[in-house]
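User: Teach me something about this protein's shape.
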Amino acid sequence: MSLEIERKFLVNHIPADLKLLSTVTIHQYYLATTPDEEIRLRCIIRPNQSPLHKMTLKFGSGLTCAEHEFDISEFIFLQLLRDRNLVPLTKIRKVLQDFSGRCYEVDIYPKDLASRLDRDSLTVVEVEFFSEEEARAFNPPFWFGEEITGFKNFSNRHLFTLAQTLLN
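Assistant: First, the predicted structure itself:
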């Protein structure tokens, strides 16, 4: 199990001078949750490659969480979702890099989901760190908006719950 130390921010705009390292589509599901635990499934669709299927066990919330992620087969993925009638939380993830080499994971959510939060759009950037000290010392670049680390309304788990309401 590894520690995930990250801060999350809304995005004002994405500068054109960032280097695009990758773009994937992620379909994310939550099978079980408590306030500080979750079991999550992801299907990661990469251009011109086979999809990846992952299961994640996550413990904690906020700045630092314990996380164990592992690959599963498509068969197991589909069996775990069978008869659940769940709508995935779908997002486009772009991994961007600045001139200093720092990487940013930018998640772009569908407009119909953003509207459930009374927003025209929803784009979030996550920055991962090696330590909490490094995370606290980080000065967000100009293109970052409001910090949402630990804000439940912007958590993927909450967005997944909102996605379920799109069925109706």
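Now, about its shape. Residues 2-165 form a domain with the Hypothetical Protein Pfu-838710-001 fold (CATH 2.40.320.10). The chain has a mean pLDDT of 95. If you'd like, I can walk through any region in more detail.
User: That's plenty for now, thanks!
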